[in-house]
Amino acid sequence: MNHRPSRGSAGPAVVQAAIIMCFLVLLGRCAWIALVHGPDYAVRAVQQRSVDVVVERVRGQILDRDMHPLAGTSDGLASSWPHRAVVVVFPSLVSGPDDALSRLDELIPGQGVCAGSARAVSLSQAACTEVEAMAGVVRGIVPLSLPSRYLGLASHVIGGIEISYDWALRGGDGREVVRLMCDACGREIPGLGARRVALGQPTGWVRLAVDSGLQACVEKALDSRAPGMAGAVVAMDPWTGQVLAMASRPFYDPDDVAGYLTRPDAPMINRAIRPYYPGSVFKVIIAAAALSTGARSPESVYTDTGSIEAGGHTFSCHARERGGHGDITFQDALIHSCNTSFIDTAMQLGAQPILDFARALGISDPDVASAVRLPGSITGALPHSRTRLGPADLANLALGQSLVQITPLEAAAMMCAVANGGVWHRPELVLEACGPDGRRVTRVASVASMPQQAEGAGQGQGDRVLRADVAATLREMLAGVASRGTASAALGGMDVAGKTGTAQTGRVDGSGASIFNAWFVGFAPVESPRLVVAVLVEGPESGAAAAAPIFGDICEYATGAARGRAR
User: Fold this and answer.
1) Which residue segments constitute the domains of the chain, with CATH numbers given?
2) For residues 442 and 429, what is the distance between their CA atoms, to the nearest angstrom?
3) SS3 assignment, position 415
4) Own/partner pairs, 436-442, CB within 8 angstroms, 24+ separation
5) What sections of 94-140 are H helices per DSSP?
6) CA distance 210 to 213
7) How many CB atoms lie within 10 A of CB 144?
8) Which helix (H) or strand (E) is 392 found in, with range?
9) Are the C-beta atoms of 394 and 268 separated by less than 8 Å?
10) How is 298-364 classified by DSSP, letter by letter?
11) Is the four-CA dihedral 216, 523, 210, 278 of positive or negative sign?
């Protein structure tokens, strides 16, 4: 007997399918919420039961050539990094004894601990110590000791890189906050307290050519040899043009820029990229022009009587009181910095060859100023090629006065060409930079270890501006400056070469004493130079006495570091 299914038997199946579909839709919705919007909802849930105060905007690291941080410490270095004192104030939650609250109002700058919005305030170390002592009886304040962003080296360089490479360092919405857990009414939940939380996206980074060990040595030498004086040092690799160290004094604290803006000694100025009268350092340019054109040889003899007439003016040599140097070779004239010999040489050369060689060696070249990518970089100054220079003008030019100015960076780049055999390299401070997205990477220059192990090793492209034989002759002459010339008292016995310079500025200090520019620009060792250093000190009357010892300290460090690497 056949049985036909009844029409009503499909009903349960339809209901069952509908229920399954509903569950699938709900499951899909839950998956959508959990996987797509889950992180956002989680953040909102935390925000409803917490109060966040930003204590630091996260920026990318600035690294030295060996990837050691100069700014933006890593977690592994946080304990040894310089720290700064901060207190986080939650005004709506502040409570405690009246006398303690009154004292906190005095210690913490602003409108008072019970007023305004939640905020982070920087404190002096002494104030922070007192606030920490009161944190046990006052609720709603969180004193912290945070790693500084800055190591404390190369503050002028780091400050400039922060501006020029903000695109790589600003890091989007990266920030570090202090989070206080609260209930639905905004009251602090006892026992949960406050904690530091990092939020936001990864940041980029910038890698410099700076060697942090050499940088520390440069700053120590400046501070110990010329305490309280204004000045600058630039150290470069002569074979690549990479800037291995750059320091300026007075120093400023990047964590307290506002406190330095109004100081009369202008600590915010990076004196390494500002122009000064070079004095006798400019005799290197005169010598290069004279040797290259054949106007002088090292054996050429000039009779120095102690003074020379030029354009109706009398120019003196420092040996005038003893009747001058007498018969002196051109080589010894550089070694002993004989003014009259170089004025006579400039007269014979004329202005144009001198200016041509100065420009070829990077003096007043905008490429030098722009190459290091530091805001405020200024070129030196030379007379325009069409300017007619009289005899007195030529005399002042020969002495590095009045008509010519150079920056310590330009002086170092100039001496690099002498040290490496006649090739001028554009200075390079930034090796590479990477943006927060990880894709915007700029390779600025090839990386070379410091110092070079042999002459020409790792040499990058450059422009030949001096014949190799002229550069070799200049190196020999400049070695004599250190061994038996104007810098022998400070550098005698060292395997170094260079030129002293003392320039009148026409300015006086607060006591009415004349301000001079004291220079030493040189390289080491003599035969296979690994390091070029330009030193400028404002104030002293002698480059040999003030600047040369700083140069010597730096070269001793570099020589010792090279021996350590060789072992």
Assistant:
1) 50-105+116-205 (no CATH), 212-253+271-566 (3.40.710.10)
2) 13
3) helix
4) 436/60, 436/168, 436/170, 436/171, 436/172, 436/201, 436/202, 436/203, 436/204, 437/204, 438/202, 438/204, 440/167, 440/168, 440/204
5) 98-107, 125-134
6) 9
7) 18
8) helix 391-398
9) no
10) TT-EEEE-SEEEETTEEEE-TTGGGT--EEEEHHHHHHTT-HHHHHHHHHHH-HHHHHHHHHHTTTT
11) positive
DSSP H helical ranges for 485-547: 488-491, 543-546
Q: The dihedral of CA 245, 533, 430, 459: what is its sign?
A: negative
- Characterize 488-504 residue by residue with b for buried, 16 or more Cβ atoms within 10 angstroms of its Cβ, and e for exposed: bebbeebebbbbbbbbb
226-238: b (≥16 Cβ within 10 Å) or e: beebbbbbbbbbb
Give how far the C-alpha of residue 189 lies from the chain's centroid of Cα atoms, to the nearest Å: 46
What's the angle, vertex CA 264, arms to CA 258 and CA 267, rounded to 5? 60
Taking every pair of C-alpha atoms in the chain, what is the biggest distance, in angstroms? 147
| DSSP H or E stretch at residue 531 | strand 531-538
The phi-psi region of residue 96 (left if phi > 0; otherwise alpha if psi is between -120 and 50; otherwise beta) is left
What pLDDT digit, counting tens, does each position of 249-278 carry? 999 988 888 778 888 889 999 999 999 999
- Each residue's pLDDT tens digit, 377-432: 899 999 988 888 899 999 999 999 989 999 999 999 999 999 999 999 999 999 99
Beta carbons of 82 and 152 less than 8 angstroms apart: yes
Q: How far apart are CA 290 and CA 427, in angstroms?
A: 26
Query: Could you tell me if 546 and 502 are in contact, meaning their C-beta atoms sit under 8 angstroms apart?
Result: no
Is the whole-model pTM more than 0.70?
Answer: yes
Question: Nearest-CA neighbor of 297 among 326, 334, 352, 325?
Answer: 334
Instruction: Dig out the tokens for 232 from the structure.
Output: 């600058």
Structure tokens at 379: 């070129």
Question: Chain centroid to CA 412: how far?
Answer: 15
Give first-to-last CA distance, the chain, whole Å.
Answer: 106
Tokens of 69: 């941080």
Distances in Å between the Cα of 512 and the Cα atoms of 58, 68, 110, 507 are 48, 45, 42, 9
Write b or e for each residue in 86-100: b if 16 or more Cβ atoms lie within 10 A of its Cβ, otherwise e: bbbbbbbbbebeeeb
By the 8 A CB rule, do 399 and 342 touch? yes
